[in-house]
User: What shape does this take?
Amino acid sequence: MTEESLPVRIAVFASGQGTNAREIIRFFNEPDRMVLGRKVEVALIVCNKPGAGVLQIAETAAIPLLLIEKEKFFRGSHYLEEFHARKISFIVLAGFLWKIPEELIRAYPDRILNLHPALLPRYGGRGMYGKAVHEAVVAARERQSGITIHYVDEIYDHGRIFFQASFNLSPDETPETLAERIHALEYKHYPAQIERWIELKLGPEDLRRSALGVGR
Assistant: This one.
């Protein structure tokens, strides 16, 4: 098997129920789905929360799980040896609540993507996740909300935007109804945009580095 035919291996980071991780796994498990002639596989689920629902999703899908601890993630090796050993080429954040260390960002430049449940640059930053985001959007009487897919940098929800999708809010919108609509938009767009991102990154000069499982 040549390097160019090896699967592209991604790691999905999640802290909660893992519904977006589930949709990403389902998308790339479709038998005929290829990116530039190569299969993309979710090769690792990374979680920082024992008991999170994503652990069961990983087990059901028979995907290796890495349960990380804070000291090593932020001040130790950042688990880089595990990612390199598993030849991880791309990292996808799907409801992961820890800030990504600078060393990991440098190891995977433009190869870490995040999904935010609002239209950045508004309603981002520390503490703005889950229900808190939707409550803030509704309280501000916004006319629109949506999702933002962006590159990860050293600041929460700050990296340059890769993709956005939006919809109009109804006059009687609640945080609960907004959450449901946002989830539907996430499931529709995130896996497909991950595929597009990987295709854009896998230019000819990146093929060998991807096959070796390095970010640069």
In short: The longest helix spans residues 175-201. Residues 207-216 have pLDDT under 50 and may be disordered.
